Amino acid sequence: MAQLDTREKLAILADAAKYDASCASSGTVKRDSRGGKGVGSTEGMGICHAYAPDGRCISLLKILLTNSCIFDCHYCINRKSSNVRRARFTAQEVVHLTLAFYKRNYIEGLFLSSGIIRSSNYTMEQLVEVARALREDHDFRGYIHLKTIPDADPELVRQAALYADRVSINVELPTVSGLERLAPEKSATRIEGAMKDMKLGIEDGKDARKKYRSAPKFAPAGQSTQMIVGADAANDGDIVMRASQLYDRFALRRVYYSAFSPIPSPSAVLPLKRPPLMREHRLYQSDWLMRFYGFKPREVVSAAGDDGMLPLDIDPKLAWALKFRDSFPVDVNKAPREQLLRVPGLGTKAVKRLLQSRRWRAITLDDVARLTVSIAKVRPFITTSDWRPTLLTDRADLKTLVTPRETQLDLFAG
Questions:
Q1: Is the pLDDT of residue 263 over 90?
Q2: Vertex 54: Cα angle to 52 and 59 (nearest 5)
């Protein structure tokens, strides 16, 4: 490998890390360096921008330790047979970069992944050393997210969780058959085994913290995973059901979806075109329906077409409502929260405000309009003190009426 300076390595390894979607920084414990102790903080306003649930923008240094790899996964640009420029950081170089970027107020944390070099254990040791040096040698209190390696020794993965706020173990593809076909060197059994061990470790860590305040924190922001969308034959229904299983079995904080992107010198088994980015967006929306809106996985899947694919022109909740019109209209003055959350166009905050407001007075259509972006989308599915949709809910052309019109964005819009 040719000798490269730090700037050249950073250009290569930051670009190579862009295919990792799982870099949100929410859910961790609060730490800061006020009082003159330590370096860094897990809070504040922030090179990768992630967003916390409250809307704060968090800047993370998102890089690979190396883009060299001994594996030959067909979908990966860094696979062994790929003709890309290679680079590698030492553990100390990553530590110094993180501290230097933080002190210049460029970042608030680190997201670190890596290709597999020499062996899974050797690579995992390097990742752990970065986190250990930041925490113990430099008292770094900012956010750290480590992408762990399922094939590594469980003790190394456990050490990673002692230093990192969040760890992620990628399932890579939605189906076992897809993984066997496109990444034959990886094992779904080993991946799930590592995720199960991490879940148990997190639970044990929480129990220990309840009994002993001095017990070390163990991945306080939990674990996450990522699935590649569109590289294999899995449809949206397969992906939704797989995500639901992962949430239930391993108590994941997030499942991330990454649309497959064609890579240089692709393998013959890969599709020639990338899936629409809107497909990735619809999968995130379906994920939100299960996590925050009370939808069961089967209900989300029922919104898909006969081919198992979610519609791209409308969101999954609207697609479900159009299929199951007998559930509507919903009376916003009487319906429970669970029913209100199923109304297209009403988000969790709008429903919360409706429930609060109707305790004091009857809700009108104008009241609802002030809580939603498009009252036209909501109107066919609700009744208020001054509005009844009559036959509107059952109209054959209802989809046309509630589907947002595509418009050219204005470059100079305020």
A1: no
A2: 35
